[in-house]
Amino acid sequence: MVFHALLIKYAEIAIKGKNRYLFEDALVSRIKSALKNVEGKFQVEKESGRIYVHCPEEYDYDETIAALTKVFGIVEICPVMIFEDNGIERMGEDVLSYMRQVHPEYCGTFKIFTRRAKKSFPLTSMEVSAEIGGKILDAMPGASVDVHHPELLLHIEIRDRIYVYSLSVRGPGGMPVGTGGRAMLLLSGGIDSPVAGYLMAKRGVVLDAVYFHAPPYTSERAKQKVIDLAKIVAEYSGPIRLHVVNFTDIQLYIYEKCPHDELTIIMRRYMMRIAEHFAGKCRSLGLVTGESIGQVASQTMRSLAATNDVCTIPVYRPVIAFDKQEIVEIARKIGTFDTSVLPYEDCCTIFVAKHPVTQPQIKTMRASEKRLSEKIDELMTTALETTEVIEIGE
Ligand code: ATP
Ligand code: MG
Asked: Is the CB–ligand 1 distance for residue 197 below 6 Å?
């Protein structure tokens, strides 16, 4: 079964005027890059308010659909057969050939919906639907017409050529990446932050990422796991610039100087500061974390406030109100879950106190950080200067 093109349907009806062009151009460009790694030649074209992926040569249908279902902005993908316009008689034969290939021996209800973009075509759309419908009824004895609740809606579009389609594959929805600005994702090896990144990308946001690595307490395998997660997220979001920060000395210094029950919060405040530094470098307009209220001690509202205290740009927390199970479901759907649950150590768990504060006061955190004044600037500078940058999904 060979389809000649894929009709890409997109929604977000509210997008009007100039924004519509930006949306469509971004979508076309995202579709092109998603298809780069798929074998075959494709032509992606904007045609009077529609986007078509033309597939003139041999191509792997399943692989193509799989790639397109990762492109945000796409609501539906309809595989189309295209025939030359040689009049209504010939159209009848072509539509029957479509039916025999796509719905062999069809025996349900159907309706034909004709759109006549080419106004010079001699029949009206109603006449075309009636004519072709009759041909199907004659050729497929099990089929019947139901104009109100058809099991099969067969579209015929009369343009320069005749486009026939009836199937539809669901796309991921959202907005094309690139239409929503840019943000810096704090990407750990856990379940939540890759999901948070995915959700932001779904709203059109380009991602960069930062990972806090604490060798030798966290292993190369833990770092590789984060790289692997970034690769999976990049299949949806496009290329990610991943910053791997060597966080060990800062963590050890906090451990040495500050009350242990405050470690996690103070450490997280330094993570935010460093993430914000790189956000500035990448022209990111916000930070993104996988925090969710109440999940752990460092994610009570008071802890979040204490962490947020050091940030001057917005912090987006797309999974803030999700239950763990809801986050897990998304992680499974997008393919990050199996990697996230690999059992490598996390830099936060190593220095974690037995009884971390759950209601930290901002004033207390600020005061505790004063104990770091001797060396922290120097350690921060070193951490920033020794950060490794890895381009993911280029
Ligand atoms: P996750 O599953 O995303 O690791 P978590 O439930 O383990 O989240 P925490 O460890 O408290 O929660 O981390 C909260 C958020 O802080 C993470 O979602 C992530 O955005 C960020 N974060 C934590 N550790 C790191 C790290 N080592 N590198 C980068 N970001 C981190
Ligand atoms: Mg974690």
From this structure: no
